Amino acid sequence: MQSMRRLKFFLPYCIITLGSAFPFGYHSGVINAPADLIKSFINTTLVARSVRCDGRCVDLIWSLCVTSFLLGGFFGGLIGGVLANKLGRKKSLFLLSIPTVIGSLLMMFSKMAQSFEMIIFGRFTIGIACGAHTVVGPMFLSEIAPVNFRGAAGTFNQFVLVFAILLSQVLGLPEVMGTTELWPYLLALCTVSSVIHILLLSICPESPTYLYIIKGDRRRSENALVYLRGQDCDVHAELELLKMETQQSSTHKSNFCDLLRIPYLRWGLIVALVLHIGQQFSGINGILYYFVSLFISNGLTKQVASYANLGTGFTILIGSLASIFIIDRKGRRPLLMFGISACLFSLLLFTLTLIIKRVTEINKLTILSIVLTYTFLFGFSVSLGKSVSKYFDFCIVFPCMVTVLLCILLLKKQLSNYCII
């Protein structure tokens, strides 16, 4: 009986992250390992079309395959908050799983159709869904989680994301699916998780916060809370908090100007922007998308670089696991200070190592640079994390109506991500 109660408690979190964090993480990492195979496919396709194209042209098309996901994420982030309030958190996740499946199928049939454009458009379509997921998913998690579990639930969201990155890296190995015949199926494998998510979403309750504050339905909100907390739990205290927030929302409708005008919202906005801009310019995206290419250019063989790439996923996974057990006990500030300090010193030493290697040609320094990269990734995973975990934290800081506005504002910085990559 106790195990069934625990399963019922954790199941909604698993369902939500399976359809939001998992595809985001998988498609962030899956494009790295089969890079040479996709470049070869692009070149073969151009030759078959009698198009003359040198290596730089192929690299440009390859870059479009990578960055189309980020560009789609920028546009998806802009509509995520609107969908969450218009359709609800649950229906939004259901709707967003459809373009994920469509984009995956486009990539799966790209080789058969001899069209690299299908990879670009497929990743763009998935990017739209994942960009919206970074708003809807963490918001949904924060609204169904008890107050004392919100930090761990948000870190669980990041854990699923980095697990998906690691899984994509393992499956991308030449011994698994990183082959000439199987790479299209590797890109499309996330279809399975999206279909399972669609099937299971029916047993997941809608957000009590959405039902009470947006829809004004106290009865359904109470039923959702009872389902989430258990029949023997008193949910009246949480309902009273929702009632107070509803009264505040009815007396003053939040807008973007409030983020600058109201002191506590303004300081929250400053914290949000500093963390997000720091996350974007930390260098994490360059490592995730170009780790293999980076270390091949620094002397590693393709096979060794592919296995070293697995270490990135394992390192972030370990950091995320550590965060789950620490964040609600020690708080976010100590984790941020420790992680950002680790990122700073590891990047400084990494840069110094590459400069010395270029001058002295000492090959063993490549190993040191990999270790420093792992150190950076561990520090990043326990502090800045991925964007989705940061949105989750701000769902705790800001009122419900302001959170949607803030998430839309912060997703606009995805454009800087696209420019960097």
Task: Annotate the secondary structure layout.
Blueprint: H1 2-19, H2 21-29, H3 35-48, H4 55-86, H5 89-108, H6 117-144, H7 150-171, H8 183-188, H9 190-200, H10 208-214, H11 218-229, H12 236-251, H13 256-261, H14 263-280, H15 284-296, H16 302-330, H17 332-360, H18 364-381, H19 387-397, H20 400-411, H21 414-420
Can you put this structure into words, describing what you see?
The protein has 421 residues and is mostly helical. It has one domain: Growth Hormone, Chain: A (Up-down Bundle), CATH 1.20.1250. The protein is 80% helix and 0% strand. It is built from 21 helices and no strands.
Q: What percentage of residues falls in helices of 4 or more residues?
A: over 70%
Q: Please report the first level of CATH classification, the CATH class.
A: Mainly Alpha
The whole-number mean of residue pLDDT values reads: 82
According to DSSP, the number of beta strands is 0
CATH topology: Growth Hormone, Chain: A
- How many DSSP helices? 21
Portion in beta strands: under 5%
In CATH terms, what is the architecture? Up-down Bundle
Count of spatially separate domains: 1
Radius of gyration: 22 Å
Major sheet: size, sense and barrel closure?
none
Separation, N- and C-terminal Cα atoms? 50 Å
Shape: globular
Spell out the helices and strands N to C. HHHHHHHHHHHHHHHHHHHHH
Structural class from helices and strands? mainly alpha
Main location: membrane
Subcellular location: Membrane
Transmembrane segments: 7-26, 60-84, 93-113, 119-141, 153-171, 183-204, 269-292, 304-327, 334-356, 362-384, 391-411
Organism: Schistosoma margrebowiei
